[in-house]
Amino acid sequence: MAILEVNDISKNFGSTTVLHKVSFSLEEGSALAIIGSSGSGKTTLLRCLNFLERPDNGSIVVRGETLFDASMPFKEQEKGLRTKRLHFGMVFQSFNLFPQYTALENVTLAEGLLAKEREDYKQNKKTICEQIEKHGRELLDQMGLADRMTHYPHQLSGGQQQRVAIARALALKPDILCFDEPTSALDPELTGEVLKVIRGLAEQRTTMIIVTHEMAFARDVSDKLIFMDDGVIVEQGDPKQVIDHPREERTRQFLTRYAQG
Amino acid sequence: MFWSVTQSLLGGLLTTFQIFLFTLLFALPLGLILAFGSMTRFKPLRCLVQVLVWIIRGTPLMLQLIIIFYGPGLWLGHNIWSGNEAGRITATVVAFSINYACYFSVIFRGGIEGVPAGQREAGQVLGMTKSQIFFKVTLLQMVKRVVPPMSNEIITLVKDTSLARIIAAYELTFAGYSFMKSNGLTWPLFYTGVFYLLFVGILTLLFNHIERRLDYFR
Ligand SMILES: Nc1ncnc2c1ncn2[C@@H]1O[C@H](COP(=O)(O)OP(=O)(O)OP(=O)(O)O)[C@@H](O)[C@H]1O
Ligand SMILES: [Mg+2]
Question: A62 C-alpha vs ligand 1 centroid, how far in Å?
Answer without folding.
Answer: 25
